[in-house]
Amino acid sequence: MKPGSKGWKKFMAKLYGFGAAVVIVGALFKIMHWPFAGPMLIVGLGTEALIFIFSAFEPIHEDPNWELVYPELALGHSDDLDHDALPAASHGGRGGSGTGITEHLDKMLEEAKIDGQLLERLGDGMRALGENAAQLKGVTSAAAATDSYVSSLQSASDKVSALSEAYERASVSISGMTSNTQEGESFGEQMQKVSKNLAALNNVYELQLKGSSSHLEATEKFQAQVTEMMSNLSASAEDTRLYKENMAMLSKNLTDLNAVYGNMLKAMTISRD
Q1: Nearest one of 13, 15, 37 to 25, comparing CA atoms
Q2: What pTM does this model have?
């Protein structure tokens, strides 16, 4: 395997990777003071030395001669280069015997009559085209809004037509109802009766509402009285307990008093004998 060949480059890339891994593992063993740290460090450093030996046989990287492609780069290596005269020389090379790619491009632009003014006009035209496109977008939005407005008008027209038809049918019905005078009078009487019945029904409903309100008030008063009675009962429960205790104490005292009185009677009876 020849140094500098494709196979040599692949081998060296893998050697660098594996060697670096072995070196790192050896250093890790030494830093952590693990067992066999010394041998692992020796193996790692030996691998690193072997890698440096192989890297000594690698060919030196050579840069291509870019001056052959770009002759302008050769001016940078000249010791007597006048940087102030460099732009003038480059512009003068357009009409001279220069062979650079830039000179050929400048010649092609001159032959095609493409200058700064033409590019500026082209930019103005592109900007105007962008503005027209934006205006066209607004026109499109306006057209869409117009279509929506037309559809809304059509719907409103249909609804007005339906309303006019309903009005015509209602007018025909009313005219039929009012064509006969007697039927119109009877219809008016029936409507008056219905109005009276509704008024009576409203009165009955009002009376029911008043009765319900009074009944509700009475119920609320009764609930308030019951609540007050329960509170009085709960307050008197403590008094009842005290009264019971006092009565029990009084009964005990009376029992003791009776016993004392009985002993006194017995003593008096014995003294008489």
Answers
A1: 37
A2: 0.27
How far, in Å, CA of 223 to CA of 219, rounded? 6
**At a CB cut-off of 8 Å and minimum separation 6, what does 30 contact?**
37, 38, 40, 41
Domain residue limits at 165: 127-172
Burial of 106 (0-12, 13-18, 19+ CB in 10 A): middle
In a domain, 246, yes or no: no
State the helix-helix crossing angle for 116-179 and 181-272, rounded to 10 degrees: 90
In the chain, the amino acid numbered 179 is S
Residue 36 is assigned to a structural domain of this protein: yes
Residue 6 lies in a domain: yes
pLDDT category of residue 154 using cuts at 50, 70 and 90? confident
Give the number of domains in the chain.
2
Q: For 47-85, how does the pLDDT look when each residue is reduced to its tens digit (9 = 90+)?
A: 999 989 988 888 777 777 787 787 777 775 555 555 555
Query: Which of these three, 38, 58, 78, is where a domain ends?
Result: 58
**Tens-place pLDDT, residues 201-234:** 888 878 878 877 887 888 888 888 888 878 777 7
- Compute the distance between CA of residue 108 and CA of residue 268 in angstroms, rounded to an integer: 163
Question: How far is the C-alpha of 106 from the C-alpha of 72, rounded, in Å?
Answer: 15
User: In this structure, is residue 4 part of a structural domain?
Assistant: yes
Give, in order, the Cα–Cα distances in Å from 170 to each of 160, 164, 182.
15, 10, 21
Q: Which of 113, 143, 172 is the last residue of a domain?
A: 172
Closest of 38, 14, 18, 16 to residue 26, by C-alpha: 38
